[in-house]
Amino acid sequence: MNGIDWSNLSFGYMKTDYNVRSYYKDGKWSTPTETTSENIDIHMAATCLHYGQEAFEGLKAFRGKDGKIRIFRMRENALRMISSSHGIMMAELPVEVFEEAVIKAVKLNERFVPPYGSGASLYIRPLLIGTSAQVGVKPAAEYMFLVFVTPVGPYFKEGFKPTPVVILRGYDRAAPLGTGTIKVGGNYAASLAAGHIAHEKGYSAVLYLDAKEKKYLDECGPANFFGIKENTYITPQSSSILPSITNKSLMQLAEDMGMKVERRPILEEELATFEEAGQVGTAAVISPILRVDDLDENKSYVISKDGNAGSVSTALYKKLRGIQEGDEPDTHGWVTIVS
Ligand code: PLP
Ligand code: COI
Questions:
Q1: Coil, helix or strand for 8?
Q2: Which of 109, 141, 195, 260 is 20 to 30 Å from 233 by CA-CA measure?
Q3: pLDDT for the residue numbered 158
Q4: Residue 19 burial class via C-beta count within 10 angstroms: exposed 0-12, middle 13-18, buried 19 and up
């Protein structure tokens, strides 16, 4: 189908047939409509370009063995986009408009939803931007919401194989009372330089420490962090990390599997005690962590002794993918079937 090598897709952009757009003007959102254009035409003084009035989301659709397409926890992404819009003074997009646009974008591009068993999925990228002109630092009066989709493979080329991550003390991603808890483009711009250094040195990602005390684990550049020990799933509590929908789901699944779940500050030194650890997110799914190097302090924490994913991470990964692809019952009502 389509001549696409589904099993060897990377996490990149591929043109699909349509994207879906809705516009906010005079206090109202327009009905989402499709276009084939990959370009947008906005004013050169648009607030998204100058003052970072931009928020995005990331979610996925999967093809099941039954041929049906399932979108994972779409409502959670709609609610998080509302939280992002409040954080940077953008017009609030109603959950129903978000869901309508996402479903429309998936249906119109159905031929790009990877087949069951390929390991690939359809990545859905909603985007909200301030489009009207301002020169003073003020919010825009007009906004555009757009949803495009693209088929993707693993975010880290190693897939489910453990990779090393690095602590770089010279860089922060987000301030404690800043924008770390919302999904705005500026956080990712702030992570590019450290991310580049990490990749150059052979690490899959930066593991950020809390920006104030530089003592506690925050999260990775594109994903939350979790550690496992003594049948407990432990993930950071912090005022500067994104509330990951994947992490929230894994906390529930860990509890369902009879594990204890702790959400609390995690001192860097606690890394030495974890039996397993991983990066979690829509793009990353679960990417097990091999080792954490704190280069400035000359410390190294080996997590995976044999270089393989641990049993708990593997069980959680299988359960999550099973629900997403329809092989496991959707007992928490996380899945929207679109066809
Ligand atoms: N943390 C950051 C900084 C992210 O960019 C993402 C990706 O969305 C996540 C965590 C994981 O969030 P989610 O599981 O909702 O995709
Ligand atoms: C996601 O997991 O959806 C993300 O947004 C992470 C990254 C691609 C920015």
A1: helix
A2: 195
A3: 87
A4: buried
Q: What is the average pLDDT score of the chain?
A: 97
Q: For 182-203, how does the pLDDT look when each residue is reduced to its tens digit (9 = 90+)?
A: 999 999 999 999 999 999 999 9
Question: CB of 58 closer than 6 A to ligand 2?
Answer: yes
Å from CA of 209 to ligand 2 middle: 19
Nearest CA to ligand 1 atom 6: 223
Residue 267 C-alpha from the chain's centroid: 24
What is the spatial distance between Cα 20 and Cα 36, in angstroms, rounded to a whole number? 9
Q: Whose CA is nearest to atom 3 of ligand 2?
A: 58
183 is catalytic: yes
Domains of the chain: 6-152 (3.30.470.10), 163-325 (3.20.10.10)
Q: What is the pLDDT of residues 123-142, one digit of tens each?
A: 999 999 999 999 999 999 99
Length, in residues, of the chain: 339
Each residue's pLDDT tens digit, 90-124: 999 999 999 999 999 999 999 999 999 999 999 99
**Does residue 187 have its Cβ closer than 6 Å to ligand 2?**
no
What residues are paired with 163 via a beta bridge? 289
Is 213 exposed, middle or buried (CB count within 10 Å of its CB: 0-12, 13-18, 19+)?
exposed
> In the chain, what's the furthest Cα-to-Cα distance?
60
